[in-house]
Structure formats: structure tokens, C-alpha cells
Specification:
alpha+beta, Elongation Factor Tu (Ef-tu), domain 3, ten-stranded antiparallel barrel, eight-stranded mixed beta sheet, 11 helices, elongated
């Protein structure tokens, strides 16, 4: 391929650097040439337990974004959501944490709100939020229901228990039956008496009418009151008659209890069962029977209660571990601190991730393939460590000088051999928004690197500089990685583009990357710095 002069190579490098810096400046300054890849909105939750970074954000079951970060602020969980640019949410939007299935992963559901409200922009806050219902709330509700059922069962047992309860029920039924018969008889007798009273009142009113010195208004008022009282009495008797008729016909709970044999048989069966239970208790059968009738069991129970009382007194005096836990504020503070440390550790373990990566680069100039196997250890979203093994087809150059004697004349020859060599990289990286800075070992030599991420990290532009002590110029490499699929990416670029020895070469390749939970479990026990 054609060779470039040193001046041309330096000029190309400077132009590429200026283009990258200009493009990054426009991106950081929000003057993007390619348009926004999304906007960030925040929401506060009382609890974000179980929610992880990079889980989906959905509206009506359709994914519209991802959870970008989770942090603690003012005692609440501050969750930052990255929303797709073509999705609008409004000022009265609401965020809810949901669970896929009973024990599934947590994700965020948005109600986008009313279009009459102003749309939210980057940095705005969703005011309405609702955390996921946890299992403790459900169990407390079920416990309350169980307590109510237990109380109702105890009350029924106290009312119907034993022969006394059975006798009480029989007495109630007997009294009800006698009362109904008495009411029926009273109604029949009073009907004739009421008719006689009305007739007498009619005669009496006629007599009063013949008396001239009686005020007619007073007589009229008395007769009106008596007629009203008679009407009310008649209505009362009609109501009593209806009740008696319904009872005689077997209607209502009381009618069924008196008329239906099945109801009586069920009541008798229930009372017989209660009597049988009472007999077994009196005979000392079962746990309750032994507790009531056997002295040994009663003594054991008394001893147990005495032991419990002794333990309770020690706890009240602050003696022992439990006593200190109840009365000693310092012990409680230490336990709370330990639990807080455990909780912090578990939360950090949820954010700890590991990735395995392989990529191959075909070098057009040497017609060889350069391979990389990488392990990325990421304790935080904005920080990671990179360990790498590199198979470099032009890694080792050996020059041999050979002197030959031909017809008395000495000739010197140089023999150059290039061999494969394994090299190693160990780098630390820190991300600032869309820019990542790297430093450490690059292919067994010191170096630095910078990555710029675009389109939700699907496109990455990288520039690496290392091997500054080489006889050749420093090793500079420009890389473009594009990920069309989740685990697959395409790589291309220009390697050694300021080399004086003609080693510059374009390259093209592909790679595969995936997260590995097994390696995460092993590495998570190693104390990597997380800050």
C-alpha cells in the first residue's frame, strides 16, 4: 500500500483529533448533529427494593426507555429514567414499580399523563410515584383476617359449649314458640275487643252530642285522637299477624329453625359434637384434656410459665443478650449499623457486573488476524476494570545479521523474522456521561485511551496511544465499534497510522460480548474499590 510521509501522518492525526474534539464538544453542549437519543427524567420512590439499573420502562406494555441510575437522596430512592425521544410524557405523569409475575423482576410502568399538561424535558421530575406492594403488607392483612376468624370461633364455642349451652339453645327455641302462640292468641281475642271498643265509643259520642253545654270542638278532638289510636293499633296487629304467618309458613331464619327438620337435625348434630368434645376433655383425652385433668401436665405447664416469667423479668432488668437488645440503645445502634452494612453490601452486589468479550481484527496490510480476549469487571455503572489477552501476529521482530565469504569478499546480510506474541492489557476506566477515559497497560506497555459513546452506546469512537518507548513512533490506533445486535458488534479502524516502519494498516473485524453471572459470583468476593 502507499506510504505517507511523517508530516502527512501527523497532519491526518491532528485532523482526526480536531474532528473528534469538535464532535464531542457539540454533544456535551447539546448541539448534536444527529439528534437526541433520548431524555432523562427523575422520580422519587419511598422504596426501590428489587429495582435494578437498565430494566425496562413501559407504557401500556410497550418499552419506551430504561432505568439509567438509582441513588439515595433525602432518604428516598432517586431513579433516573432514560426515555426515547419520540415518546412524550406530561406534567401529571405517574410512575409505578411493577413485578413480572409473583416472584419476577421489577420494572417501571408510566402513565404518561394528559396531553393538556406541558411535556416533561430533560432533568424534569415526575411528581407522582407509587412503589411496589411488598409481601409484608399482604401477610399483615391476612394475619388480621385470621385473628377475626379466631375471635369469632372462640365466641361461638363459649356460647354453645357444653350441656349448659345446649340447654340454653333449647330454652330459647321453646320460649320463641310459646311467644308466637301467645301473640297469635292475643291477636284473635283483641280483635273482638277492639270492635266492641269502637262501638262503645260511637254510642258515647252520640250521647255527648246530645249534651248541649259541652264544647263541640273538645268532643271532636277526642274522637279524632281515639280514631287515630285505633288505626295505629290495627296496623300493629296486622304486622304481628304477618310475622306469625311467616313463622308458621317456615319463612325466615326463625321459621326454618322451627319448621324445617334439617335445620333442627344440624343444630342437634352440632350440639352433639360439642358434647362429645366436652366429654373427651373431661376424660383427659387429647392435649386440652391432659392439660385439664393430668396433674403432671399442669405442673409442667406451670414450670414452663414460671421459666417464661423468669426470662421476662431478666429481659425487663436488661440482663442477657435479649435484655440488652431491648433496653441498651448502644446494642440496638450496633445491630442497626451491622444490618445497614449488610444491606449496603447486598445493594452493591446487585450493581456488580462482569462481561466476557472476544473480537478479531483482520489487518489488510499484513493479511493477518489480531485477536483479543477481554474480561471487564464493572463494580459501578460509571467505572470498570479491563483485563485482556492479545494475540499479536506481528508481536515479535527478530533481526539476524549474517556475514558470508564469497571468493574472498565479505558480504553482510540481515534476516528479519516476525513471530506471533501474546501480550497483556490491564486497564482502569472511568466514565463521565458519554465520555470514558482509560489508562494502564496496553498490549504489555503503558498507555492511555479515550472512548466516546453515541446512540445509547451502540456506536463507540475510540483512540488509543501506547508503546511510547518504541524505536518506531508511538503506537496510535483509531477504532470504531458499532453494535447492530445486543451481543454482537462490528469493529474497524486504522492501526499504527504514524509508524515510520510501514506498519500502518486498516483493519476490519467483529466481536461478541455477553455478561456472565458465574464469574460475577466468584469475583464479587474480591474487594475491588467502588468509588
Amino acid at each position: 500500500m502507499s506510504k505517507f510521509s511523517v508530516e502527512a501522518k501527523v497532519g491526518i492525526f491532528v485532523i482526526i483529533g480536531i474532528i473528534m474534539l469538535g464532535y464531542m464538544s457539540m454533544k456535551v453542549g447539546k448541539l448534536s448533529l444527529t439528534g437526541e437519543s433520548g431524555y432523562d427524567v427523575s422520580v422519587y420512590f419511598d422504596s426501590a427494593s428489587g429495582l435494578a439499573v437498565d430494566v425496562p420502562v413501559e407504557i401500556a406494555g410497550v418499552e419506551v426507555g430504561r432505568v439509567r441510575s438509582i441513588s439515595l437522596k433525602d432518604g428516598k430512592a432517586l431513579v433516573v429514567l432514560r426515555i426515547k425521544p419520540d415518546v412524550k410524557i406530561y406534567g401529571d405523569a405517574k410512575a409505578v414499580i411493577r413485578t413480572k409475575g409473583i416472584l419476577g423482576d421489577k420494572y417501571v410502568v408510566l402513565n404518561p399523563g394528559s396531553p393538556t399538561e406541558p411535556p416533561l424535558k430533560t432533568g424534569d421530575l415526575i411528581a407522582k410515584a407509587e412503589p411496589a406492594t411488598d409481601m409484608d403488607t399482604l401477610m399483615n392483612s391476612l394475619q388480621g383476617v385470621a385473628s377475626d376468624i379466631k375471635a369469632l370461633s372462640g365466641s361461638l364455642s363459649n356460647v354453645l359449649g357444653g350441656e349448659e349451652g345446649e340447654a340454653s339453645v333449647r330454652s330459647i327455641i321453646k320460649n320463641l314458640k310459646e311467644m308466637v302462640e301467645s301473640l297469635n292468641e292475643t291477636v284473635q281475642k283483641n280483635q273482638t275487643n277492639i270492635n266492641e271498643i269502637i262501638a262503645n265509643l260511637t254510642d258515647f259520642s252520640g250521647t255527648l252530642k246530645s249534651v248541649g253545654d259541652v264544647d263541640p270542638d273538645d268532643i271532636h278532638r277526642i274522637i279524632t285522637n281515639l280514631a287515630s289510636a285505633s288505626t295505629k293499633m290495627d296496623d300493629l296487629m296486622n304486622g304481628v299477624n304477618r310475622i306469625v304467618t311467616q313463622i308458621n309458613e317456615g319463612k325466615g331464619s326463625l321459621g326454618k329453625l322451627i319448621k324445617e327438620e334439617d335445620a333442627i337435625r344440624n343444630l342437634n348434630a352440632t350440639l352433639a359434637s360439642l358434647r362429645e368434645i366436652s366429654d373427651k376433655i373431661n376424660q383427659g383425652k387429647g392435649s386440652i384434656g391432659k392439660l385439664v385433668n393430668e396433674d403432671a401436665v399442669a405442673k409442667d405447664l406451670n414450670a414452663t410459665l414460671a421459666s417464661v416469667r423468669d426470662i421476662s423479668e431478666k429481659i425487663n432488668r436488661g440482663e442477657g443478650t435479649i435484655g440488652k437488645l431491648v433496653h441498651d440503645d448502644e446494642t440496638v445502634d450496633k445491630i442497626n449499623s451491622a444490618l445497614g452494612g449488610i444491606n449496603d453490601y447486598l445493594q452493591k452486589q446487585e450493581t456488580f457486573r462482569t462481561f466476557i468479550d472476544y473480537r478479531g481484527e483482520y489487518l489488510f496490510d499484513s493479511d493477518d488476524v489480531k485477536s483479543y480476549i477481554s474480561l471487564r469487571i464493572q463494580p459501578k455503572e460509571d467505572k470498570y476494570y479491563l483485563l485482556q489477552v492479545v494475540d499479536d501476529p506481528e508481536g515479535r521482530k527478530t533481526t539476524t545479521r549474517i556475514t558470508r565469504n564469497v571468493n574472498g569478499e565479505l558480504f553482510e546480510e540481515e534476516k528479519v523474522e516476525i513471530e506471533d506474541e501474546f501480550k497483556f492489557s490491564a486497564q482502569i476506566a472511568k466514565r463521565y456521561y458519554d465520555l470514558t477515559l482509560r489508562g494502564g497497560l496496553f498490549e504489555s506497555t503503558g498507555g492511555i485511551g479515550v472512548d466516546y459513546h453515541l446512540f445509547n452506546d451502540r456506536l463507540t469512537l475510540s483512540l488509543e496511544a501506547f508503546d511510547f518507548g518504541s524505536d518506531d513512533n508511538p503506537h496510535l490506533k483509531f477504532i470504531v465499534n458499532y453494535s447492530p445486535l445486543k451481543h454482537l458488534y462490528i469493529t474497524s479502524g486504522f492501526d499504527r497510522f504514524i509508524s515510520d516502519e510501514g506498519k500502518e494498516s486498516f483493519f476490519l473485524g467483529a466481536g461478541i460480548s455477553f455478561a456472565d453471572e458465574d464469574i460475577k459470583t466468584l469475583i464479587s468476593t474480591v474487594p475491588f474499590p467502588r468509588n
